[in-house]
Structures are given as structure tokens and as C-alpha cells.
Amino acid sequence: LLASLLTIDSSYVGTVMPLLVVMGVGMGLVFAPAMASGTLGVDRNDAGVASAMINTMQQVGGSVGTAALSSVFASSVSHYVRDNGPEAIGAAQVHGYTVAFWCSAAVFATGAIVAFTRTLAIELAEKHIRVNALAPGLIEVPRYFDMPGYTREFGGTMVPWGRVGLPEDIGKPAVFFLSDNADFITGQTLY
Known about the structure:
Layout: H1 12-38, H2 47-84, H3 89-124, E1 133-134, H4 152-157, H5 167-178, E2 189-190
Parallel strand pairs: 1-2
Helix pairs in contact: 2-3
């Protein structure tokens, strides 16, 4: 999220370098426990295979993530230049990175919610407490209409379904998850 604060006038020492330091410390604190968690409970004879699978998935995930975020960046830059003219290329690049950083933050937040939901469901299963999550994507709320140029039609262009979700679209799945009809469902995330 800190990277989304970058502007065209941001300095390296004051803005970029602290982000790189935080990222490096974060990765150092995450990779060792992730490897330990990923190989937890694996038979001693299979620990090498499990470790190799984790490394492979980190490499593949990083490649796919980079490709996806690069596409988001390029699309954002081209739309910004189209709307503001070629003289705004510097601002367009900053805009592209900001959008890509927000998208990556959303992906990480979704992953954290899914992991937390599953972990909590496992922890509370013996007490017969169900834990599920709703992750519906773009849901239109009143503050969206405070954004310049926002219309429901514009929101629909950002969603493959062709329309944004409305708060009432989330109410029905929430009621279902809370009902006895979902008595056997736990640890799930509904997208």
C-alpha cells in the first residue's frame, strides 16, 4: 500500500528505498515460516519433494503474478495517455504503477482472508463453529458516486459480468451461510 503513494515527484531515498527495505524485511520474515509450514507434517523421506514443490510454486506464482501485474500496468498507462494526451507519459507511468500496486494489495488481502478463513475453520471445527467468508469483488457503495465521472455503467465496464455488485447481492449468500442449510459448509470463501 505504501507504493501506491508514489507520485511523479517522489524521491528515491525518501519513498522508494524505504519501500524496498520493508519489502526485503517482509520477505525475510515470511519465506522461512512459509517453508516450515508447507513441509509441516510431511514424512521425513518426502521432505525434499515437498520443499521442491513449494519452491516451484513460488517461482510459478511469481512469474504469473508479474505477467498479470505487467498487463494491469500497461493497460492503465495506455488508458491514462489516451485520456490525458501523450505529454502526460510520466504521470501515466506513475498511475500505472499505482494501479498495479493496488491490485497486488487486493490479491494479497484476498489470499490472507482465504488462509485465515481456512485456518480458523480448522481450529474451530471441533467446537462446531463454522467459518466462511464472502469475497465478492466490486460492490457499489454510495461513496463511489463521490468519485468524479463514476456511473453505474462505468462500474460495469470493470467487471466481466457487465455490472457491479450491489449490497443486496451479498445479503442472500450471507443469510445462506448463517442458516442451517449451510450446516456442513465451513472454511469456504465465496467469490
